[in-house]
Fold:
Amino acid sequence: MEQSTNHLTVSRVADPLRQLSLERLRERTSMKWRTYPADVLPLWVAEMDVPVAEPVARALREALERGDTGYPAGTAYAEAFAEFAARRWDWDGLGVDRTAIVPDVMLGIVEMLKLVSGPGDPVVVNCPVYPPFYQFVRNAGRPVVEAPLDATGRIGFEALEAAFRSAAGAGGRPAYLLCSPHNPTGTVHSAAELAEVARLARRHGVRVVVDEIHAPLMAAGTRFVPYLSVPGGEDGLSLLSASKAWNLAGLKAALAVAGPAAADDLARLPEEVGHGPSHLGIIAHTAALREGGAWLDALLAGLDENRGLLDALLREHLPAVRHRPAEATYLAWLDCRGLGLGDDPAAVFLERGRVAVNAGTTFGPGGEGFVRLNIATSPEILTEGVRRMAAAVRGERAAG
Structure:
């Protein structure tokens, strides 16, 4: 039997978020489950508490059975993403001939910045934003220029143009690193907003590099717009990956995509960069994109339920926390300033509540008093996490 949803069609796939017990999850050896002591409930880093999608597991088993563990080759990943983009986003502009495989999205971003800017050239970001934007950009020798989001968590265009003007005034070749959808707020930029980004970038001579890793993770009723599809986005460079949507961070692979006017830039990417992705990663990601649609739809339905559950839990147990359910991603950006816990409430939640969330301060200006919480877990674990946070606010030490 097939069941229609407000995303696509789910065919006999159970909610992946409800399939693993806490005891089973604690057997994992990844960062999410081994960074903190065993009595801490981890609701922080972007790993999902889900089993591997069966099409992905099957593709990996078959590769191992034939000993297919060599170096990556070919365009299967790009072709699969082009097919996925056409199905999910009604976008046929992902030209396979304008793509390159890269190790992962952040390393791909660094390589794209090397193509369109030089050492010392400024890079504009919208804060608060994913902390590696600061770390990787600065490690690449580029200073960061901040353009704060507005009070609703969307791009503030006056601030953005001021940042573009400042960056362009410094000389060199400035760039703008756009997060779309935005992490940590979960904001999905509209076509009109993205077209305005392109217009301002063109006016000020700023090149746009966009991280679209969360693009498959749309909430119900929300539509993702690829930056390269909007008027003026033709000279943009995008980074895409199946890693977030299918929980494949440990299987490294990502795709760099150039707009038609940026094809010559991408052609200058050093050949050795393409040696960085894992061949098994590319096999896994390709299988996810081609055969993992039903699994993804089941996940999206579960995430929609968890967004509603989190909102209800906060209203009941932590009514002073302000929360706007995200339009995308599986991350929740919680305004905890009303709790009186200072700039870093995550530290209090960890110490008293034994629950780990990301500190808003690590996301740059505008993150003070906020935390980022990962909802890609079971309803039971999510409920327990909020219960522990509430206990921490009451000054109680939660039992592990």
Observations:
- Residues 1-10 have pLDDT under 50 and may be disordered.
- The two ends are 41 Å apart (CA to CA).
- The longest helix spans residues 293-317.
